[in-house]
Amino acid sequence: MKYFVFVSFFSLLFLAIGCSNSSSSEETKTTSGSSTEETQETNDGSKSEQNIRGAIEATFNGPDEKLKEALNGMKNTDIENEEYKKHLNHYAEHFEQHYKPYVTEKFYEASFINSPDADYFIKAAYPDGQLKTEGITIDEKDDYYTFSVKVSYTETTSDESKTIEVRGNAQTIEEEKVNSIHYINSDELYQVIKEIGSTS
To answer: Rounded to whole angstroms, what are the CA distances from 51 to 71, 104, 181?
Structure first.
């Protein structure tokens, strides 16, 4: 049963992405453009570094109120219901606007549409936790980048908080967009989320 729900979720997510592309492309372009420009204006470094930073920030910040509303709607609605699909569409739009601009099309499909990699920690923090990046360091190597990011997790019901330094590496190709991200010790952050959440 869990496998069926898992497959159904990603099937509907794929459809939601398609619907979102066709029905709100201009809005997405505008929002994505401003989001990308904001990152480029506020961060030093190459275009590749800016894109890596943007992808990391989208992965380790949230969930915001709109995402919580979408997740609440999906949690409390049957997967076959039209209301569920509406909330799923809003959920997909968030990642189109805040994650997709920084990664290649192929990596977007691999890390968000076909797997839970991009939204894994946001879902883990939901419903009572909040993730926030507090500093990102990126270093360029021969043909890839290494990075470290300080991520704080706060349990909103108790204000208990802890910060973990997540390390990893990334590569960029087309238009200097991200085509690969590997988090070396992200399981440490997941354990913090579960430990603090279970005691609140």
So the answer is: 26, 10, 11
